[in-house]
């Protein structure tokens, strides 16, 4: 859409006394909350207390985003796929609805339409694509009013495909090779098209490898499990672009304040490092924090073998910084892992325990 005045995004999101959603001060992850509160004097400026976010798919990222917004005074609702997940999310202060993206209930879509902002985290599925976009006519009908103003779809840098280790930005032609990456690209186009048709400020975030509390090299080492096929493949890569979950929240906050419909942003840190380097640093941190466990922690994942550059790229985050004004909380995996390790260590100390699992709230 070329004319900004046609967007429905505005500073005052509308009615302030809606019957659903409830703010809460409960913080389910102190480590990320602390990281984000360091930026509170900047991040809270200009955000309306009565903004209302609906998150389609409250998984790992959705929970962190939702809690960050609740801590700022937002009302947050969302969806999940099981009763067990719903109960856990309700305890965190969210209004949660069981939702099957393959067969969406019109009632839930109607509730979604009582919100000012929509975040889509549901991934595409093999042979189907984006399950929500299979019902685009229903979405166009239900979402076409003056309430919902802003939309963001969380995608992946995997859509770029093979660049032989070269740097890529948002102007580079995506060359997805796998079926799922192709479906991701199609989903991007679908959500941008939907936003254009119904007048939303729609955005795409291409995320690097997501890590944070409960999902990091620190956690992998301290809670060892057999490596998956995908993890083994990543261990041979020369470059992996990453992003800490706190910086995903950080970037979303800025995008909400500075909507620019149709824009795509790479959300990654400054340091696309190989997995072996990351795990070597994680072992170093663990040995410093828990020297008594040196013999208990297997060296693991220490191979220095590298693969070739086929299928690789290094992802540029300049647009995110320039246009959204994002200042990364964790510009490198080093800062992110240090924060995670400090949180685990401090939690363990508070519980008078030398062992890692005690006092650590894993997501």
UniProtKB/TrEMBL annotation:
Q: Which UniProt keywords apply?
A: Isomerase, NAD
Q: Which Gene3D superfamilies match?
A: NAD(P)-binding Rossmann-like Domain
Q: Give this protein's Gene Ontology molecular function annotations.
A: isomerase activity
Give the NAD-dependent epimerase/dehydratase domain ranges.
Answer: 151-267
Q: Which PANTHER family match?
A: EPIMERASE-RELATED
Which family does the UniProt entry place this protein in?
A: Belongs to the NAD(P)-dependent epimerase/dehydratase family.
**What protein am I looking at?**
NAD-dependent epimerase/dehydratase domain-containing protein
Q: Which organism is it from?
A: Mikania micrantha
